[in-house]
Amino acid sequence: MNKRLGAACVAVLSLTAACRDQPQQQSESPRRMPVATAESVPAPAEVVPAPQRTCSIENTRTANEPFGPELSVADVLQLGGRISGREAVENNHEKGQMDTLLTLTHASNRFTFYRSPDKDLMIQATITNFEAPYSRTLRTRIEAARRGSTSCDSLVIADSLQMNTVSARLVQGQLRRVSVDPYYD
């Protein structure tokens, strides 16, 4: 019986080896996937942002009086603005005197005033809503100052001494945001 089992094993092994050596036939030819090469696949297009152009303009009237007559805390409050913040600060010139930084908001516009006992000084304004009378004046003055500079994305308007600045951001030629930074000491 051992001889028969040995012969059977040899027969099975030889059939297995024979099947492995013969190529199998298939009814369909295998699908070949295209191989991408550096030459056949175009490189993805780089997204290059459009260059932003900033124009600097010297216009003393717009830089010194961006809102027309000087805008005060009372003017903003009278138009419906509200005080949104107060911060006590030490006066740099009068020892022991405390002054106040007032933050006001009106129609999404924001103003910061330096309040001392004898006056209020605007030290910063950010304008994004151009419906109020003061912001319409600002827009008119900026548009007049930028004539001839129509391809700018940003404008920096300053007085002759570069002390007062008005910075404007434009989107497709339309005024979107203005920052007014008057000189103060």
TrEMBL record:
Highest taxon of the lineage: Bacteria
Biased composition range(s): Low complexity: 34-44
Region (Disordered): 21-44
Protein's name according to its UniProt entry: Lipoprotein
